[in-house]
Amino acid sequence: MFPSMQAPEPVQLPVDRDWWRGAVIYQIYPRSYQDSNGDGVGDLSGIIHRLPHVASLGVDAIWVSPFFKSPMLDFGYDVSDYRDVDPLFGTLGDFDALVHRAHELGLRVLIDLVLSHTSDQHPWFKESRSSRDCPKSDWYVWADAKPDGTPPNNWLSIFGGSAWQWDGGRMQYYLHNFLSEQPDLNLHNPEVQEELLATARYWLDRGVDGFRLDTINFYFHDPELRDNPALDPEKRSATIAPSVNPYNWQDHLYDKNRPENLEFLRRLRALMDEYPAVTAVGEVGDGQYGMQIQAEYTSGGDKVHMCYGFEFLAPIAPTGKRVAEVLNTYEEIVGDGWACWAFSNHDVVRHPSRWNLSEDALRLYVALLLSIRGSACLYQGEELGLTEAYVAFEDLQDPYGIRFWPKFRGRDGCRTPMPWVQDNQMGGFTDAKPWLPMAVEHLDRAVGRQEREEGSTLAFYKQMIAFRKAYPAFAKGTLEIVEARDDYLSLIREHEGDRIFAAFNMSAMAHPVELPEGNWRQDQGVPFQAVVNDKGITLPPWQAYFAVAE
Q1: Nearest-5° angle of CA 458, CA 464, CA 467?
Q2: What is the pLDDT of residue 2?
Q3: Catalytic one among 133, 234, 274, 496?
Q4: Which of 53, 257, 422, 441 is packed most tightly, with the most Cβ within 10 A?
Q5: Which residue is catalytic, options 214, 296, 382, 412?
Q6: CA pair distance 400, 408, nearest whole angstrom
Q7: Is the peptide bond before 406 cis (omega within 30 degrees of 0)?
Q8: 367 backbone dihedrals φ, ψ, rounded to 5°
């Protein structure tokens, strides 16, 4: 479909060590973005050819989900070679070309590093499982069985069942927090740490601008292998694992969130600080301690730059009161740390479906995401207003969904191919049968169609991102909650004397707006409606109001 790309000399972006603070980052799931060679699977060359679309949004960076060599049992999150591209996605030359083209368009590039575990097909694990006295015998987490042959403790896998898998060669169990084919690395071993840091350096030397660090709080385990205690039923959260999974029944004190991780993150940050302007955003997967962990990992300026939490990836739409609670708690706990917020990603039901949003409500929540303090992640197709796709059982690819079907349908519904054109049953994604079906209902929201519509969701995203960029207070400023109710939220962002007031009517009823003291001028550059007259300001249902202090 598209010619292969060759990388010319690197393009140098302006050096700004603080570029990530308040950045808007666009996540690309390579398998589903654009197929360039007709095999039904998206690839790096396809991404290159679609980068002008990403740049047209006005975002600051892309985050590319894993493209490394992999058996693809967890679609790239089971890495068998950290330093090469899986042939399914292309070559290292294609990756270099992607970085070059992104930089040419003013986009920085973050890649998804999976450092907590590898594939069982990785040469390290193959050697480790070969014997108990080989050089890499301690590179993974191995433990003897209990006297009765059962696993060493009660730790559970996020993908269901015990987190321990028996290996008949070593006559021991190995730890896997995810699939049994994803053994956990033993970061208590200094050699493992050195190799992972060298991997990070390898990609930084290839020109990437930083990392999204997968499952960052899973890097270390309790060396004593103590049992996790039970969790009170009222504290169980289905944000990290579906409600049908007893993983949520444990208080995960010992299989993740370990204090030893802090020193390793300092080592990683020291390495990153050798480069002019790179960043790291860590994914913190935890239903009980997420915010405290984010505080630990981002405070002090010597660990990761920001953390990606699950507070707004929950099943229920956040009310104004909930948003205020999250933001205020974050300010109290995290202090000088930094958040990266998202409503959707490749692991959860797309938020228009998850929260059952109308078109107006969808736009209001996007405006809210781009108005709060922190950086923002947008997931591919979000700018089109894509809903969760239905994927029939016989078409499922995700092992998570196959295991827990039908109560939990897995993650395939948010991973279906990106629709580029309306007048093609494959949406312009591929000329072949796609790896996941193209959702028919997504064709009406294709990029090509929305680019021709003045009031489209795509046009709205572009306007809101441009509005955010026009006022540095949104990216860098402080945040003050003015009023917070279930159906209404208002706040002030301030930076170097510039103040912006924002109000959000999060209901199907009209709501009055009370401005703070001072002189305020309404900014009419945003695509929202407000009734302004002698009686005051009224927001119609699901509308927002923005004003600038004069």
Answers
A1: 145
A2: 54
A3: 274
A4: 257
A5: 214
A6: 8
A7: yes
A8: -60, -40
Q: Are 311 and 286 in contact (CB under 8 A)?
A: no
Pick the closest to residue 43 from 89, 101, 99, 98 (CA basis): 89
214: annotated active-site residue? yes
- In sign, the C-alpha dihedral spanning 112, 221, 347, 435 is positive
**DSSP structure class, residue 96:** H
The first and second tokens of residue 297, run together, are: 């990992």
Among residues 172, 171, 162, 158, the alpha carbon closest in space to that of 217 is found at 158
Instruction: Tell me the CB-side half-sphere exposure of residue 136, using CA atoms within 13 A.
Output: 15
Residue type, 33: Y
**What's the CA gap between 58 and 106, in Å, rounded?**
9
User: Residue type at 325?
Assistant: E
- List the structure tokens of 291: 């915010």
E-only strand ranges, 47-189: 61-64, 68-69, 81-85, 108-113, 142-143, 164-167, 172-175
Beta-carbon-side half-sphere exposure of residue 473 (alpha carbons within 13 Å)? 21
Backbone angles phi, psi at 32, to 5 degrees: -120, 15
Q: How do residues 64-93 score in pLDDT, each as one tens digit?
A: 999 999 999 999 999 999 999 999 999 999
The first and second tokens of residue 213, run together, are 């660090």
Distance, in Å, from the CA atom of 269 to the CA atom of 272, rounded to the nearest integer, reads 5
Q: Which pTM does this prediction carry? A: 0.96
- Our measurement of the distance from residue 14's CA atom to the centroid of its chain's CA atoms, rounded to an integer in Å, reads 25
Q: How far apart are the first and last CA of the chain?
A: 54
Does the annotation mark 398 as catalytic?
A: no
Within 248-316, residue ranges assigned H as helices are 261-272, 290-298
Q: Is the pLDDT of residue 226 over 60?
A: yes
Task: Please give the share of the chain, as a percent, with pLDDT higher than 90.
Answer: 88
Give one word for 270, left, alpha or beta, with left for phi > 0 and alpha for psi -120 to 50.
alpha
Nearest-CA neighbor of 347 among 281, 409, 282, 294? 409
Question: Taking phi first (over 0 means left), then psi (-120 to 50 degrees means alpha), and beta for anything else, what does residue 363 get?
Answer: alpha
Sheet of 531-533, strands arranged across: 511-513, 536-539, 531-533
Rounded to an integer, the average pLDDT of 512-521 is 94
Torsional class of 160: left (φ above 0), alpha (ψ -120 to 50), beta (otherwise) = left
Q: Which residues have CB under 8 Å from 37's CB, separation 6+? A: 1, 2, 43, 45
Asked whether the CA dihedral 255, 258, 264, 265 is positive or negative, the reply is: positive
What's the number of CA atoms in the CB half-sphere (13 Å) around residue 25? Answer: 36
Between 103 and 11, the more confident residue is 103
Query: 394 Cβ partners below 8 Å, 6+ apart?
Result: none
Q: Record the tokens describing residue 344, joined without a space.
A: 């959707």
The residue whose two tokens read 């994914």 is 283
